[in-house]
């Protein structure tokens, strides 16, 4: 269903799109687009979902910096995880006639009307890391290979527990991401495809019964807004209701690091320690979670180098503004319900205690001091 060896495509037509932009409103063209050689003077709108999650705050500021280095003016807004606020912020951006709007959506299906306004003005829209659904008013999508993120989490579990050779079953608890985030299904589907054979064979059992009947039922275990407090409460409920001192959970599929933090807090409160800490997955390489990996309180995270994501997004913005062909490498995977959105997918990386320094510190993404392990 998903070919993880992605094929490369170049989507044409950007020059024609630029011509349409120029014709949309003559006065805007003369005063605003003119000659955007070097990007000088053009405004780019950037709408991010929240500043409260580390990765979104980091992504927004990084993209703003990259675009400014290319010579663009940037209006960056964070929407505090409120859909109405994001709609209002985008509308305010449209009133300023930006060349392009980059949107990290809170609810992938809630932006259709305001983005249709962008389309009617000839303003191009790039969906950033979260697919915008149920509208034709989205031109490009830049993200990581989200199916592969889940597949990497699932494969890590298989390898960590040696499920191929294991004879005894392991107690397994699955979690999924926010039901309103299109990426969450891809994460869960990737993990499900890897793990379902071991569920069917009885090597992974779920004492809580919180096991979706199929991939299509993934939202039944979704954690709204990726909330660590909601995840903590859910894990506490499962531990109190289905586990005991004699019956321990062995492995937990967490789709991202925020949810993993909440799960970890529930585990610690229930008395889990270094001797019986379960295999716990994650995603995003957030600072606290990297520290937990080093301490043995989280097995792995999937690192999506958002520096590369920002660089690719900035390149796409620049190509649009200059009327050039926009490079993408996937034209099949992301059907938003109205069209298949041309996409550029980047490759994620599995990080655990064995390669955390090499991937995160030696690359300059973090300093060892930042996560409190100078000697690691």
TrEMBL record:
InterPro entries xrefs: Bact_Solute-Bind_Prot2, ChvE-like, Peripla_BP_I, SBP_2_dom, TAT_signal
Gene3D superfamilies from the UniProt entry: 3.40.50.2300
Keyword Signal included in the entry's annotation: yes
Compartment(s) of residence: Cell envelope
Periplasmic binding protein domain: residues covered: 44-325
UniProt entry keywords in alphabetical sequence: Signal
Primary localization: other
Transmembrane stretches, start-end: none
Coiled-coil ranges per UniProt: none
Protein name from the UniProt record: ABC transporter substrate-binding protein
Protein's organism: Actinomyces ruminis
């Amino acid at each position: 269903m998903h070919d993880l060896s992605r094929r490369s495509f170049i989507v044409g037509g950007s020059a024609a799109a630029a011509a349409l932009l120029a014709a949309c409103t003559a006065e805007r063209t003369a005063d605003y687009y003119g000659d955007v050689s070097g990007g000088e003077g053009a405004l780019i709108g950037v709408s991010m979902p929240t500043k409260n999650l580390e990765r979104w705050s980091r992504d927004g500021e990084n993209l703003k910096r990259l675009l400014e280095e290319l010579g663009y003016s940037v209006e960056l807004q964070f929407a505090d995880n409120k859909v109405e606020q994001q709609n209002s912020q985008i509308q305010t951006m449209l009133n300023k006639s930006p060349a392009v709007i980059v949107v990290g959506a809170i609810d992938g299906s809630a932006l259709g009307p305001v983005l249709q306004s962008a389309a009617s003005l000839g303003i191009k829209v790039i969906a950033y890391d979260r697919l915008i659904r149920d509208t034709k008013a989205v031109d490009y999508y830049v993200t990581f290979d989200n199916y592969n993120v889940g597949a990497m989490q699932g494969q890590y579990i298989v390898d960590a527990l040696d499920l191929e050779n294991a004879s005894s079953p392991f107690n397994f608890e699955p979690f999924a991401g926010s039901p309103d985030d299109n990426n969450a299904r891809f994460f869960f589907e990737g993990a499900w495809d890897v793990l379902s054979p071991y569920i069917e064979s009885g090597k992974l059992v779920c004492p809580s019964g919180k096991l979706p009947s199929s991939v299509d039922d993934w939202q039944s275990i979704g954690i709204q807004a990726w909330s660590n407090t909601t995840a903590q409460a859910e894990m506490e409920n499962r531990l109190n209701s289905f586990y005991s001192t004699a019956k321990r959970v062995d492995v937990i599929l967490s789709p991202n690091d925020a949810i993993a933090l909440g799960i970890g807090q529930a585990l610690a409160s229930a008395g889990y320690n270094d001797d019986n800490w379960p295999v716990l997955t994650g995603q995003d390489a957030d600072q606290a979670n990297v520290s937990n990996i080093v301490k043995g309180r989280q097995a792995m995270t999937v690192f999506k180098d958002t520096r590369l994501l920002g660089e690719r997004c900035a390149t796409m913005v620049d190509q649009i503004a200059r009327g050039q062909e926009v490079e993408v490498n996937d034209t099949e995977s992301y059907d938003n319900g109205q069209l298949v959105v041309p996409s550029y997918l980047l490759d994620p990386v599995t990080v655990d205690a064995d390669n955390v320094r090499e991937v995160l510190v030696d690359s300059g993404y973090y300093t060892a001091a930042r996560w409190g392990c100078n000697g690691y």
